[in-house]
Amino acid sequence: MSVIKNHIVQLSAYKPPLEGRDPDAYTLLDFNERTIPVGDSIRQALHQYIDSGRLQMYPSYGDIVERLADYAGVDSHQLMITNGSDQGIDLVFRAVAAPGAEAIIPGPSFAIYHQCAKVEAMSIVEPQYTKQGGYPVDQVISAITPQTRVIIVSNPNNPCGTLVSSEMITRIADAAPHAAILIDECYFEFSQHTMVPSINDLPNIFVTRTFSKTWGMPSLRFGYLMSAPENITALCSVRGPYDINQMAIVAAKAALSNPDDVTAYVNNIMQTSKPLFEAWLQKTGIEYWSSAANYLWCFPECARDVGNHLQDQGFLVRPKMYGDTLGLRITIGIPEQMKSLMAAWEKIGES
Ligand SMILES: Cc1ncc(COP(=O)(O)O)c(C=O)c1O
C-alpha cells in the first residue's frame, strides 16, 4: 500500500518531448521559445553575479516586484514573482481547490492546467475550442456550478493561438464570482492583449505572465502573477520564500533595463516573419488557425510525414492533435529561419 494519496499514485507526470533537442543539430521551432539568444547585457549581468562570489547566499529579491509592477502597469501589492508561470498557475489551483471542486479547462490547451487540477483531485470539464468560434464561451458559462473553483482563459491559447476578448472574460468573471478566473498571458508581449486593467474591478481574476517566451529565459524559470492585493497576500503564503532563484532575478532586472530588445524581437516576429509564413501557408493551401502569438497550428496533409521530413531537414516542430486530426504547432522564428523552414518544407517528396 502506498503512503501517497491514491489519486496522485494514479497520475502520470507531464513529460514534454525534450529528448534530442540539440540546438546545434536543429532549429528549435517546437516549444514557442525565442529563437535567438538574449542580449549581451543579460549575459554580462549573469557573469558579474557569478564573479561577485555570492552564490552561497540565499536569494534576495530587492526591488524586482516594484520594477515589474511598473512594467505591467499595476500597483506593487497586486503582483508577486513566481518560478515560471507554471508556478503561478499551480499556486492558484492549490489555493482554491476544495473537496468536490471542479475546473473548467477549455481544450485543447496547455497540459499544466490539467496536471494542476488533477493533483488537487478536481474534476475537469473540457469544452472545446473551434476554428470558427474560438473560445467556447457559452459552454464555459453553462458549465459553471457551485463547485466550480477555477476557469481557465489561456490568452492566447496554446496550441491554437486564439484570443478571448476582455468583454468575454468579464462575462465569465461575473458569472462565476465564487471561482478563480485564471488568465494565462504567457504570450502577452506578442499578443499585446491584457486583462490587467480589470484587476481593480474583478476580485476573482488572476493573470499569469512569464519571462520564458519573448524575454528568452525559460531556463531560468521566472514569471509573475497579478491579482487583487488580498489574493496576492494569500498566494504569497503558499509560495516558498526562495522559490525563485537569484540568477533569474539578475537576468530579469537586466532584461527590464533594456525592453527595446524585446520590442524589436516581437516586431520582427509578428510584423515580418509571421505574415511571411502565413502568406506561404495560404499559397500552398495549408490550413492553419489564426493566432495572436508566436506560433501557428497548421494542418498539412500527412502531418506526421511532414514533421519527420522537417526533422530530417534540421527543424523541430511540435505535433498537436485536434480531435482525431494531427496538426503541427510551429514556432515562428526570425525571417531567415522561416525562409529556411519553407525552403526545407518545399523539398518534401524530392528525395
Ligand atoms: C500557455 C502557456 N502557459 C504557460 C507556459 C509555461 O511557461 P513558464 O515557462 O513560464 O512556466 C507555457 C509554456 O509553453 C504556455 O504555453
Task: Tell me about this structure.
This protein folds into two domains: 6-38 and 260-346, Alpha-Beta Complex (Aspartate Aminotransferase, domain 1); 40-256, Aspartate Aminotransferase, domain 2 (3-Layer(aba) Sandwich). A seven-stranded mixed sheet has the order 2-8-7-6-5-3-4, with helices on both faces. A four-stranded antiparallel sheet has the order 9-10-13-12, with helices on one face. Helices cover 38% and strands 16% of the residues. The N and C termini lie far apart (56 Å). The chain is built from 13 helices and 13 strands. The chain is of the alpha/beta class. The structure holds pyridoxal-5'-phosphate. Pyridoxal-5'-phosphate binds at residues 32, 84-86, 110, 154, 158, 184, 186, 210, 212, 218, 223.
